[in-house]
Amino acid sequence: MLNIILTVLHVIVSILLIMFILLKSGKGGGLSDMFGGGSMSGGGGSTIAEKNLDRITVLTAVVFAVTTMALALRLV
């Protein structure tokens, strides 16, 4: 039962992690341009939306790593 819950959580977190990484801006553009904040953020500073997206991405990556390790330990 726990294995099924971990697998479902791992799949959901994987999809979220892919989505958050694709939303991040590369060399230019990304989420800030999508919502019209690209020209307003001058001087190389990050917007609040980009900082929050970074935090959410890191949190999702940590959950992904934890679920990966938990599933690996359950298989042994």
From TrEMBL:
UniProt main location, coarse: membrane
Any one Gene Ontology molecular-function term assigned to this protein's record: protein-transporting ATPase activity
Source organism (scientific name): Euzebya pacifica
Membrane topology according to the record: Multi-pass membrane protein
Main function: Involved in protein export. Participates in an early event of protein translocation.
Subcellular location: Cell membrane
Membrane-crossing residue ranges in chain numbering: 6-23, 56-75
Assigned keywords, A-Z: Cell membrane, Membrane, Protein transport, Translocation, Transmembrane, Transmembrane helix, Transport
Protein family membership: Belongs to the SecG family.
Gene Ontology BP, a term: protein secretion
GO cellular component: plasma membrane
Coiled-coil regions listed in the entry: none
Keyword Protein transport among record annotations: yes
Keyword Cell cycle recorded: no
Protein name: Protein-export membrane protein SecG
InterPro entries: SecG
Pfam families reported for this sequence: SecG
